[in-house]
């Protein structure tokens, strides 16, 4: 399949994760093409809502299901993503891709892995989690640090126990859980109160063979990087997923130019060592 | 349980001499709390602090008609209680066990006395408590900053 062409996909499942985040599973309409959506964790698709427009969305699928369907988790931000919250089973959308650089999973084999996500930033790391679980013996210790505003905002709630069962050390924190609307018994996992960065700060130093992958709001990642360095994770082993103004997805329109890089083509996953000088430039 | 060796597991006491740690061990005891126990209460005298061996403690603040609002969780391996360091030596929060908790409890009068008697020890520990307090302040700022917003 030419990844520049929009392909029509039928939504086979749509689930509201929170009041402003939806996860959709989509299946290619033209089965004759028989093209599984081949991607690597960390890449993104351009998702097209007819009559609305196109947005870049991280792929949150389990790679081993890519023959059957592709999963995207979308957070309400602008007009298109707001419309996506109304998507339902049977609706048709357009998808092209995948695009961008992926997480360094191959290079992370036989190493410890820290996955650090904030808010909807868990979506692009979900594909990594699935890959790790499918090949668990190929990785050493794996930690998932995940922070959100409230328990209601936690993504993939029903999957957390599955992660834990598969020997992933899951640490979750929320800023506040005083909202009485949720029932704690609906959650089969616990969380801490406070910033998730504090949870990382409370850990022992990590060994040199530790790779960290982080995704979330930039302000969070800037503090995460400081904490990771403080915990002796090598800067060359830290990877960030960034998203800035991506529009065409393939490095032609120039909207996402960031210093010498195209965010869509050279990213969204970047090695911290390569971009740390850019992160210090406020104007970028 | 030999408390000196237990205390040495915590960063706060790492690289202190055996004699220095023993001073604290002498005014320490292992203590257990059941889930939902109040470990300390707002406005009571802050006369002790804890190293959490296991369990979780919620720091709550009283607001709006005695409603108890959780603001932070202290986890295993962390230090609970810093209000004993500075006057008026009163708790600013409620400390409530949200799981069963086992902790090393250190008498704060005894700790302050040891630090007054041995300035080198006192200075070392104050620097470490200062780092701890700075970390808590930073954590609180991050919590207020809403770092998960886009």
Account of the protein in words:
Chain A is α/β, with parallel strands linked by helices and 284 residues long. Helices cover 19% and strands 30% of the residues of chain A. Chain A is globular and about 50 Å long. The two termini of chain A are 35 Å apart. Chain B is α+β, with helices and mostly antiparallel strands. Chain B has a single domain (3-148), classed as Jelly Rolls. Chain B contains four helices and eight strands, in the order ααββββββββαα. Chain B has a four-stranded antiparallel sheet. Chain B starts with a helix and ends in a 5-residue tail after the last helix. The chains are: A alpha/beta (284), B alpha+beta (150).
Number of strand elements of chain B? 8
Order of helices and strands of chain A: EEEEEHEEHEHEEHEHEEEHEH
Shape of chain A: globular
Domain count of chain B: 1
Structural class assignment of chain A: alpha/beta
| Strand residue percentage of chain A | 25-35%
Enumerate how many helices of chain B there are, as a single number. 4
Sum up the overall morphology of chain B in one term: globular
Strand % of chain B is 25-35%
Low-confidence stretches of chain A: none
Fourth CATH level, the homologous superfamily of chain B: Jelly Rolls
Question: What structural category arises from helix and sheet content of chain B?
Answer: alpha+beta
The major β-sheet of chain B equals: 4 strands, antiparallel
Radius of gyration of chain A: 18 Å
Low-confidence stretches of chain B at least 5 residues in length (pLDDT < 50)?
A: none
Radius of gyration of chain B, Cα only, in angstroms? 16 Å
- Main β-sheet of chain A: number of strands, strand sense, barrel status? 7 strands, mixed
Give me the side-by-side strand order of the main sheet of chain A.
10-9-8-7-11-12-15
Query: Regarding CATH, which class of chain B?
Result: Mainly Beta
Overview features:
heterodimer, A: 284 residues, alpha/beta, seven-stranded mixed beta sheet, six-stranded antiparallel beta sheet, 7 helices, 19% helix, globular, B: 150 residues, alpha+beta, Jelly Rolls, four-stranded antiparallel beta sheet, 4 helices
